[in-house]
Amino acid sequence: xxxxxxSFWIRRLAGDRRFAASAALFxxxxxxxxxxxxxxxxxxxxxxxxxxxxxxxxxxxxxKASNEFTRIAQMLEPSVVYITSEYRIxxxxxxxxxxxxxxxxxxxxxxxxxxxxxxxxxPFGQMPAPRRPEGTGSGFIVDKNGYILTNLHVVDxxxxxxxxxxxxxxxxxxxxIGSDPELDIAVIKIDAGRPLQPVKIANSDGVQVGEWxxxxxxxxxxxxxxxxxxxxxxxxxxxxxxxxxxxxQTDAAINPGNSGGPLVNIRGEVIGVxxxxxxxSGGYEGIGFALPINTVVKSYNxxxxxxxxxxxxxxxRFPRDEAQIENTLRALGFDHGIIVESVAPxxxxxxxxxxxxxxxxxxxxxxxxxGNDLVGRISEMPVGSEAALEIDRGGKRITKKVTIExxxxxxxxxxxxxxxxxxxxxxxxxxxxxxxxxxxxxIRPLSEERRKQLGFPQAGGVEVTVVxxxxxxxxxxxxxxxxxxxxNRQPVAAFEDVKRIxxxxxxxxxxxxxxxxxxxxxxxxxxxxxxxxxxxxxx
Length: 539
Prior knowledge:
By secondary structure, the chain is α+β, with helices and mostly antiparallel strands. Helix 1 (about 5-15) packs antiparallel against helix 2. It is globular, with a radius of gyration of 34 Å.
């Protein structure tokens, strides 16, 4: 329609009152149509000018590309849980520990010294334990009735443990069933009101270096995270960890929040519990460690029966330097065995007549490969059972029969051999009167073996193993790992010394602890620096 025709019809319609409104509407419609046609023409011209030879892209129908990793992720998703542990918030102390000669790493900064660390952290940054109000970790269901395996350091000393299942935003309150501090393993339970899907357990003795390893968990609170790598080493002994911890090493990415989650094989079976990482930055640097599931299962089965783990012992000590042991055995004409370094006083080995420098060659007729082999087999034997040890003493082969005893009792005076054991100095709350002095610490005596391990040269002293929250000891700056050598100038060398001095004090008295604190020295050697920690016992 031409512009002249449009004008004619507008004038004609406007002349008629009945069509006045219609004329206006008709005119507006014509303008819109004309404008749209003009815009389309311009856009089309521009499109052709920019890419005249381009064909539009089409989104194809959905086609799911599946492989073994996606299958495993889907299979394990309902069984891996997200754990939140809540802690009592305590006020920040206004007092500071005295300045040391040189600043060094606080031995309480990490459960494991050096680059090896457990990776239970607050999201997106480290939160200085134990001041965190909450932390997060992972776990996995092992029983349809709600039993879950995780690391002890994920739930240790938590005032509340909450578990979230995949696809379920409900936070289920969990109960701690029991733990194994020497393995860093805990069993917790939730009541979801329905059967849950447990994982499948592998036999970790069949794991080989180079096979696929898949880690699943909630690093940095990012639930359902799946990372893939390989098994890069087996039986890794980190020396800084417990005697029973021999790790599967992997390069599958694990980070803060992965603690307690499963490491699985290509069949989706759990081969380990992700426990530690090697890092200088606090995050993933290519090396992680998982406890073999066979070791974990043995502890789990004891925990669900009795709530604790009992290990057998014969009461001997032996060197841990594998290269030195191997060379010594070769020089003595042996290709296997373990050399007795010392025997625990009053222990089964001493009762059976074992002596230092005896070479243990076999246990119940089977050769003993090394110290780990001996300890592992004896620890699994029932308390009260008898073990036949073939030993070489000065070139003569003899057999000694030893009765297995509970490890905690055999080494009750050598608490360095036990994880998490400590004596609390404070009187029991129900027996203490209002004037009783309370320090808020746990201590253990220093055996000669522990002194060598710490490189602590002087006599006397007791090691601080626990500093209670909001206690007097925390207020004056005492740390786990400090060695108390005197209190108010009175030397201490045993639990009884500390208890005796404490009983002579009352609330409101001034107290000065002389402590020795480990500091880094030249060439990585540890040195000890003395400091006084003083304060007035609160009224």
